[in-house]
Specification:
heterotrimer; A: Uridine Diphospho-n-acetylenolpyruvylglucosamine Reductase, domain 2; Uridine Diphospho-n-acetylenolpyruvylglucosamine Reductase, domain 3; seven-stranded antiparallel β-sheet; 18 strands; C: alpha/beta; five-stranded mixed β-sheet; 23 helices; 11 strands; EC 1.-.-.- (chain A); flavoprotein (chain A)
C-alpha cells in the first residue's frame, strides 16, 4: 500500500485522475502480452518530463521502485510490476512535437502509438521503418524499450537503427539528452544505443528523436506457396545468394496458414506446407529485374508463385501475416510466443528443431518467421487452465531456446528478455558479458530502482 | 621511470614483438608521449596477458592498428595490433565475416570485393585504418544515410577487458536484442571498455552498379542549393558531398571551383535515369563541367579522391570544427557561417555531406578552435543542430545554461568508464570531458 | 456465477495482445486500461475467477463500454468483447439489480410505452421550457436539449393500422421503435411514404412496444424478454399477413434479428417461433435495395453533397453497408462523399451518452470533425439515436450540416 502522503503528492504532481490505486485499476496494469501478471502499489500517468522528474524524485525519497509501461503489448513480461513498485504509464505523453521531413527527423513523446505516427508521416510521404506486428497498439516508447523489430528488418534494421536521440530521466531524477536530431551527435559513448533495448532498466525515455525516411517510390509484393517448409527456406538462401536484399521475407507454416485463413479469408491454400511473403522496394526501374530473379528462384521449387497486381491484393496478403499471432487462439486458447533467432544459414535446421521439439514434448507449435533475419516465432499452443500442460509448454519453450543457442543463435531477436527469458541469459552470455551488463546497470542505477529484476538480476 | 617489465612482456609475445628502442618505436607512434615499449601481440591470450601484466604493475596501455596515439602514455605500453590481421572466416550465406582488429581496412575491402560482397563503412584514414580502429572510433560517414553508421556493421566481438578478462559477445544473427546492447555500445568507445581482439562484421551483397555525377560551381551556396533540390525531388543517392575550392583540388587534381560529388552505388537499373536527373539539376543549378561517370577506373579515382580529403581532415582533429544542422537548414547555415569565417569558397577547407546535413571546416592557421566552435554551435543550435560529439554536447549544455545536464552526462560517462576500468589502465589519451 | 461460466471459454481466449486498443474509442480518449476490451475482459475474468468482487470501479468499466463491437472485428482471436461485456452486465444485474437509481429509472421508463411517452414529452416539452430559462443549459451531457425533437403526438396515434396502395406488390409490417414513435415521427412518415411509393401495403400494429435492447444491454434479460415476446407474438400472431417485419432503426433491427435468438436460447419450446420471426426482420435500406426502387420517380432540384454514417448496429450488427449508399446515390444530383472512419461509433451508444457523457462527447466531437472534413451538406444515417447525437454535436460545433435518415432523403425525392 502506498501511504496517503505519497498518493497525495502523486496526485499533486500529475492530477487526481492520473493516479490509480484502486484494485480494479491496478489489475488492468498488472499484465502484458504474456501469461504473467503482478500487482503494483499504484499507477501514475505523467504528461511532461517535469512530472516524470518529480515522480522519480518522490519515489527515490520513499525508496519505491518504478516500472515503466507503454501499451503493455510486449511478449516478454517486461512491464509486469513487482509488488513494491509503482507503474509509470506513458500513455498520456502522446504529443508529436515535430515532423521535419526535409531533415528526416521526427520528435515525439514516448506514448505516441507507432501507427498514429505512421499515419501522420504518411501524409508527408515519409515513414518510420520499425513496425512490429503490434504497431497499431504499441507505443514508440515501448518500441524503444524493447528495440522492436518487424517485418522490414532484413533491409531496414530494427528500432535502434532509427533512434537519433533521446531525452532520458535518469534514476537519480536528472535529465539528460543523448544524441540529437542528427546522425552524428553522440557524446563519446553512444548512450542512445545502450538505452534502446534496455527495457527501461537504465532510464525513463521522455522524448524520442526518430529517424524518418521517404516512402519507397515503388514496392512489389510477392507470394510463394510451398509443399514443405524446407523448400521455403531454400528460397530465402537463394534470394540472398543472388545479391538481393528484400524488404521482407515472411514465412508462415501450415498451421498458421489455416488459422489466419479462418480470420482473414485471404485465399491461401490450406494444404500448403508454407507460404513466403516477399517484398522488395526501391526505385521503379529496379523492381522488375529483382522480381524477375526472385520469380525464377521461386518457380524452381515453389508450388505456386504470384505477384500482387493491386493494392488490394497486397493488403490481402498482409492481412494474413498481421493477424498470425492472435489467430492461433482458434486452435487452443493460449499461446506462448517465442522469438528465437539463428544465423540465416541455420534457418532450415531451426525449423527442423522446432518440429522435433513439438514431437518430443507432444505440443502443437505453429511457426511464423522473419525468414530473412533467421528470426522464428514458434507459437506453442495450450490452455492456461491446464497446469500440467503449462509445465510441458515451459519445458518445450526452454528446449526451443536451447536449440537456438546450439545453432549459434539468440533467445530474442526482437521481443526482449523481460522476465520470461531472463532464465536463459546465463546460457547465452558468458560471465564476462553478464558482468558487462551489470557494470552498465550499476553505472546508471546503482540502487536498482528502474524496472528491477528485468533482463537480469543486478 | 616506468614499471614495465620488458622481460615479462617478451615472455608473453616473444622477443621480436617487443620493441623498446626509441628509434624503432617511433614508426609505430603518433604524438608527443613517450611510452616505454611497443608490443605487438599475436593472439587474444597474449593481449589478455599483457593487460594482466599492466594491471599488476599499474601501467597504462594504448592500442592502435598500425600506429598508436601516445597522449598520456608516457612510461606505458603502446599495443600495436598489426600482427592480428587475419580474416578468420568469410561467411557468404550469412553475409558476415570474422576478422582480427589489426586487419587493414583497405585490405579487407579488397578481399570483400573479391568475394562479391560489400563492407560500406569508410576508412578514417585510407592507408592506415584498421577494422579494429574503424569500430573503436565508430563514426558515421557520407554513405551512412543509405547504409547506416559504422556501428550498424558490428554484430559481435571478442574483447580483452581492462582487467585482462576476455569477453565474447554477439552472433551471426542480424537481429539480436538479447541482454543489454553492449555490442553497439562498445562501438566508438575508443578502447576505454576494452581491446577488440576479434570482430564479427556484417557484409552486404556487392553493389552491382557504380556511377557518379560530378560538377563544379563558382558559388558554394549554389552548389549546396542543388542538394536541397535533389532532396525535394525525393532523390537520395548513396553519397552527396560538396568540397570547397581549396579541398576540391586535393580530391580531383586540376579542379577549379566548388566540387560536388554525387555517388550512386547499387541503383542498378534506375541509376541511369537518376544520374541524368541529377546532372540536369546540377546544370540548371549553375554547375559547369557536369559529368556522369560510368567508367569504373574513373569512378574509383573520384571516390578515392574524396577519401583522401576525408583522411586529411580526420588526421588533424585539433584543426577542424564539425557541426550538423540537417539537410534542409544547410543553406541558412552556410550563409550565416560566412559572417564568422568569411568567404567559404576560399576558406582552407569546407566539406558538406548533403544527405546528413553535416559540415566540416578546416580552420586557418592560428584560429582559436574553441572560440570558433562556441560561435558555430550557437549558429547550429539556432537551426536545430549542434557541433558534433562531446564538445558539441558540452557547448549545447552551456548554451542552455544547463550545467547540470553536462555534469550528469559526463558523470555518467565517467562512471561507466570507471566501472569497466577501475584502475584507469586503458586508453589514457581518451578524454571524456571535451 | 452461471452467466460468466457460459462465456468463460471466450474470456480465456483473450491473450492480452492489445489488438483492441486501436479499435476502442473509449480507450483512445482516456488512455486507461480499464476502458478497453482487454482490460474489461481481464476484469470480468477476475470476477469469474472469484479474484475480484464487483465494485463501483468495476461497474464503471463494464457500463462505460459503447457496445459498438469494433473490438470484436479487430480481434484476431475471435474474442467478442461486446458480448463479454453484455454477459458481465447480466451478471451484475443478477447479483444486485440495476443501480444506480438513474440508470434503473431510465431503463424502466424505456420498457413501458406509457412511461416512455411521458419521458419524451417531459424531456422535449416541459423540460425544455424549464431548461430554456437556465443560462448555458443548452446541452445536457452533450445532448442538444433545446433542439431535441418531440412528436406532438406519438406516430402510432397519427396513422391507421393498415395503409394500402393501389397495386400492392408487397405487404410490410412496420416495427416503428421508440425513437421514431415519440421523437422523429417525420422519419416514420418518410418510411411509410417510400414504402407506399414502391407498391407496399404497410401494416403498423398499434400495440407494439420497445424492442428490449436497452434492458438487454444492461443485463435485465427478464424485461427484455417480456418485450421481445410481446413483439414476436404481435407480428406473428395478430398480423401474420406481414411478409416482413421492417425497422428503420438499426439498433432495433439488430436486436430483433440477432439478439432475440440469444435471448430465447434457453427456451427451446419457443425458439422455433423466434427463428421464424427473426427471418422476417429486415432493415429499411436493406429491404428497399432488395425489392428495387423505381429510380425514374426520384427527383431533386439542386445538387447536394451527402455523406453517410454507419451506425454500429448497422455495420457490425446487421452488416449492412452497401445498400444505404446505393439508395443515396440513386437520388439525382446527389454527390456522395465518404467520410473518414464512417463506421466508427458516434458516441450515442444507448445510455452511455447520459451516464459517461465526457467520453461520449469527445467521441462525437471527432465524428463531427470527420463530417466537416467532407464538406457535405447533409449527413445520412440509419439510426435515430445516431441522428439525434450527430445533430446535437453538429449544432454545438456551430456547423450547418443537417442529419437525416436515408428514408427522409428518399421521401423528399418524391414529388408529392
Amino acid at each position: 500500500m502506498l501511504s496517503q502522503t505519497v498518493v497525495n503528492r502523486l496526485k499533486e504532481i500529475v492530477g487526481e485522475k492520473n493516479v490509480v490505486t484502486d484494485k480494479v485499476g491496478l489489475l488492468t496494469y498488472g499484465y502484458d502480452g504474456t501469461l504473467l501478471s503482478g500487482e503494483a502499489l499504484g499507477v501514475v500517468s505523467p504528461h511532461t518530463t517535469e512530472e516524470v522528474v518529480e515522480i522519480v524524485k518522490l519515489m527515490n525519497e520513499h525508496n519505491i521502485k518504478l516500472v515503466p509501461r507503454g501499451a503493455g503489448t510486449n511478449e516478454s513480461g517486461g512491464t509486469i510490476p513487482t509488488q513494491d513498485s509503482v507503474v509509470i504509464s506513458f500513455t498520456k505523453m502522446t504529443k508529436i512535437h515535430e515532423i521535419d521531413t526535409e531533415n528526416f527527423v521526427a520528435v515525439v513523446e514516448p506514448g505516441v502509438i507507432n501507427f498514429d505516427l505512421q499515419v501522420e508521416l504518411e501524409k508527408q510521404n515519409c515513414y518510420f521503418p520499425p513496425d512490429p506486428s503490434s504497431y497499431k497498439a504499441s507505443t514508440i516508447g515501448g518500441n524503444v524499450g524493447e528495440c522492436s523489430g518487424g517485418p522490414k528488418c532484413f533491409k531496414y534494421g530494427v528500432t535502434r537503427d532509427y533512434i537519433l536521440g533521446l531525452e532520458v530521466v535518469l534514476p537519480n531524477g536528472k535529465v539528460i539528452q543523448t544524441g540529437g536530431r542528427n546522425f552524428q551527435s553522440e557524446p563519446a559513448y553512444d548512450l542512445t544505443r545502450i538505452i534502446v533495448g534496455a527495457e527501461g532498466t537504465l532510464g525513463l525515455v521522455t522524448k524520442v528523436f526518430v529517424r524518418i525516411i521517404p516512402l519507397p517510390r515503388a514496392k512489389k509484393t510477392m507470394l510463394a506457396i510451398y509443399d514443405k517448409v524446407e523448400d521455403a527456406s531454400q528460397t530465402v538462401a537463394d534470394i540472398v545468394a543472388a545479391g538481393i536484399i528484400p524488404t521482407t521475407l515472411e514465412l508462415m507454416d501450415n498451421l498458421l496458414i489455416n488459422t489466419t485463413e479462418d480470420f482473414s479469408h485471404a485465399g491461401l491454400p490450406r494444404d500448403a506446407g508454407a507460404v513466403l511473403i516477399i517484398e522488395v522496394d526501391g526505385y521503379p526501374e529496379d523492381m522488375d529485374p529483382q522480381v524477375k530473379t526472385i520469380s525464377e528462384i521461386c518457380n524452381k521449387i515453389a508450388k505456386e508463385f504470384k505477384i500482387a497486381q493491386s493494392a488490394a491484393e497486397v493488403d490481402q496478403i498482409w492481412t494474413s501475416r498481421r493477424c498470425a499471432f492472435g489467430s492461433v487462439a482458434r486452435v487452443r486458447p493460449s499461446y506462448g510466443v517465442n522469438d528465437i533467432t539463428v544465423p540465416r544459414s541455420n534457418f532450415p535446421k531451426a525449423i527442423q528443431g522446432v518440429l522435433k521439439v513439438a514431437k518430443e514434448y507432444g505440443v502443437t507449435i505453429g511457426v511464423v518467421a522473419h525468414a530473412g533475419d533467421g528470426n522464428l516465432h514458434p507459437l506453442v499452443l495450450f490452455d492456461q487452465r491446464n497446469k500440467e500442460e503449462v509445465e510441458t509448454v515451459h519445458a518445450a519453450e526452454k528446449a526451443l531456446c536451447m536449440m537456438a543457442l546450439d545453432l549459434d543463435g539468440t533467445v530474442s531477436g526482437e521481443h526482449g528478455i523481460g522476465l520470461v527469458k531472463k532464465k536463459y541469459l546465463d546460457s547465452e552470455f558468458t560471465p564476462a558479458a553478464m558482468g558487462a551488463f551489470r557494470k552498465i546497470k550499476r553505472s546508471f542505477d546503482p540502487s536498482n530502482r528502474f524496472n528491477p529484476g528485468k533482463v537480469f538480476e543486478l | 621511470m616506468s614499471n614495465v617489465n620488458i622481460s615479462k612482456l617478451k615472455a608473453i609475445v616473444g622477443d621480436n614483438n617487443v620493441i623498446d628502442s626509441p628509434s624503432e618505436m617511433a614508426k609505430y607512434l603518433k604524438g608527443q608521449g613517450k611510452p616505454a615499449v611497443v608490443v605487438l601481440p599475436g593472439n587474444t591470450s597474449e593481449v589478455s596477458n599483457i593487460v594482466k601484466l599492466a594491471n599488476e604493475q599499474n601501467v597504462k596501455i594504448a592500442v592502435g592498428g598500425a600506429g598508436v596515439g601516445t597522449k598520456g602514455l608516457s612510461g606505458g605500453i603502446a599495443m600495436v595490433m598489426s600482427r592480428m590481421n587475419r580474416i578468420l572466416e568469410m561467411d557468404h550465406l550469412n553475409l558476415v565475416a570474422y576478422v582480427e582488429p589489426g586487419l587493414l581496412h583497405k585490405e579487407f575491402l579488397l578481399k570483400v570485393g573479391e568475394a562479391g560482397l560489400n563492407f560500406p563503412p569508410e576508412p578514417y584514414e585510407v592507408e592506415t585504418s584498421s577494422i579494429g580502429g574503424c569500430f573503436s572510433i565508430g563514426d558515421s560517414d557520407s554513405k551512412s544515410f543509405e547504409y547506416g553508421p559504422t556501428r550498424t556493421f558490428l554484430l559481435g566481438f571478442e574483447m580483452v577487458l581492462p582487467t585482462g578478462e576476455i569477453l565474447e559477445i554477439g552472433n551471426k544473427c542480424i537481429k539480436n536484442v538479447s541482454g543489454l546492447d553492449f555490442i553497439h555500445f562498445a562501438v566508438g568507445s575508443q578502447g576505454t571498455f576494452g581491446i577488440f581482439t576479434k570482430l564479427l562484421v556484417k557484409l552486404l551483397p556487392a553493389q552491382e552498379a557504380k556511377r557518379a555525377v560530378i560538377g563544379t560551381f563558382t558559388s558554394i551556396h549554389k552548389a549546396n542549393a542543388t542538394f536541397n533540390t535533389l532532396i525535394k525531388r525525393n532523390i537520395q543517392p548513396t553519397r552527396m558531398n560538396l568540397l570547397n575550392a581549396s579541398l576540391a583540388q586535393n580530391a580531383i587534381p586540376g579542379t577549379e571551383g566548388q566540387l560536388v560529388i554525387i555517388d550512386l552505388q547499387g541503383f542498378k537499373e534506375s541509376g541511369k535515369n537518376i544520374a541524368n536527373e541529377i546532372a540536369a539539376v546540377l546544370t540548371l543549378g549553375g554547375g559547369t563541367d557536369v559529368k556522369i561517370i560510368e567508367d569504373e577506373v574513373e569512378y574509383d579515382q573520384v571516390v578515392n579522391g574524396w577519401l583522401k580529403v576525408r583522411a586529411d581532415l580526420n588526421g588533424k582533429p585539433e584543426r577542424t570544427v564539425e557541426f550538423l544542422v540537417g539537410p534542409a537548414k544547410m543553406p541558412q547555415a552556410l550563409t550565416q557561417l560566412e559572417a564568422l569565417t568569411g568567404d567559404l569558397g576560399t576558406y582552407p577547407g569546407v566539406v558538406v555531406e548533403g544527405l546528413l546535413g553535416y559540415v566540416c571546416l578546416a580552420l586557418p592557421e592560428g584560429t582559436d578552435k574553441l572560440a570558433l566552435a562556441a560561435k558555430v554551435n550557437r549558429l547550429a543550435m539556432s537551426l536545430g543542430g549542434n557541433v558534433k560529439g562531446l564538445l558539441g554536447h558540452k557547448l549545447k549544455s552551456e548554451a542552455y545554461n544547463d550545467a547540470e545536464m553536462w555534469q550528469q552526462t559526463v558523470g555518467l560517462l565517467q562512471e561507466l568508464r570507471q566501472q569497466f576500468d577501475p584502475k584507469g589502465i586503458l586508453s589514457p589519451g581518451v578524454s571524456l570531458e571535451a | 456465477m452461471g452467466v460468466l461460466t457460459e462465456v468463460y471459454e471466450m474470456l480465456n481466449t483473450c491473450n492480452k495482445c492489445g489488438g483492441c486498443h486501436t479499435a476502442c474509442k473509449t480507450y483512445k480518449l482516456t488512455g486507461q486500461e480499464t476502458m478497453v476490451a482487454r482490460g474489461r475482459i481481464q476484469l470480468i475474468k477476475a470476477v469469474a475467477d472469484g479474484k475480484l468482487e464487483p465494485n463501483q470501479e468495476y461497474e464503471d468499466a463494464i457500463m462505460s463500454c459503447l457496445l459498438c463491437g469494433e473490438c470484436a472485428v479487430a480481434c484476431a482471436n475471435g474474442v467478442r468483447g461486446n458480448e463479454l461485456v453484455m454477459a458481465a452486465r447480466r451478471d451484475l444485474k443478477l447479483r444486485k439489480g440495476i443501480k444506480p437509481f438513474a440508470k434503473s429509472f431510465a431503463l424502466k421508463t424505456l420498457a413501458s410505452p406509457k412511461r416512455l411517452g411521458m419521458g419524451f414529452s417531459l424531456f422535449g416539452g416541459m423540460g425544455k421550457s424549464v431548461l430554456n430559462k437556465i443560462d448555458g443549459m443548452d446541452y445536457f451531457r452533450g445532448i442538444d436539449i433545446r433542439n431535441f425533437p418531440t412528436a406532438k403526438k406519438p406516430f402510432l396515434e397519427q396513422v391507421p393500422e393498415r395503409i394500402t396502395v393501389q397495386h400492392p406488390k408487397h405487404k410490410v409490417g412496420f416495427y416503428v421503435g421508440c425513437f421514431l414513435n415519440y421523437s422523429l415521427d417525420q422519419t416514420a412518415h418518410s418510411v411509410v411514404k417510400v414504402l407506399t411509393k414502391n407498391d407496399c401495403d404497410v401494416i403498423i400494429p398499434k400495440d407494439q412496444v420497445c424492442c428490449g435492447l436497452p434492458q438487454y444491454a444492461y443485463g435485465d434479460f427478464e424485461t427484455a424478454k417480456k418485450n421481445a415476446r410481446k413483439t414476436i407474438d404481435t407480428f406473428l400472431d395478430k398480423y401474420k399477413d406481414a411478409e416482413v417485419v421492417l425497422s428503420a432503426c438499426a439498433s432495433c433491427a439488430s436486436m430483433l434479428k440477432h439478439d432475440y435468438l440469444k435471448l430465447f436460447a434457453d427456451e427451446p419450446s419457443y425458439l422455433p417461433k423466434v427463428e421464424l420471426f427473426c427471418e422476417k426482420v429486415v432493415e429499411f435500406s436493406e429491404y428497399m435495395a432488395k425489392i428495387g426502387v423505381d429510380q425514374s420517380q426520384l427527383y431533386n432540384s439542386s445538387p447536394v453533397r451527402v455523406t453517410y454514417h454507419d451506425p454500429c448496429h448497422m455495420i457490425r450488427g446487421l452488416k449492412v453497408t452497401k445498400q444505404p449508399r446505393q439508395l443515396l446515390q440513386m437520388i439525382p444530383r446527389v454527390e456522395f462523399k465518404e467520410m473518414f472512419e464512417a463506421g466508427r461509433c458516434c458516441g450515442a451508444a444507448g445510455l452511455i451518452q447520459a451516464f459517461y457523457h465526457k467520453v461520449s462527447t469527445n467521441i462525437t466531437d471527432q465524428k463531427v470533425q470527420n463530417i466537416k472534413d467532407t464538406n457535405a451538406d447533409l449527413v445520412a444515417t440509419s439510426c435515430p439515436a445516431c441522428m439525434l447525437r450527430l445533430q446535437g454535436g453538429i449544432n454545438k460545433a456551430g456547423q450547418k450540416q443537417k442529419v437525416m435518415h436515408v428514408a427522409d432523403l428518399m421521401a423528399n425525392a418524391y414529388k408529392d
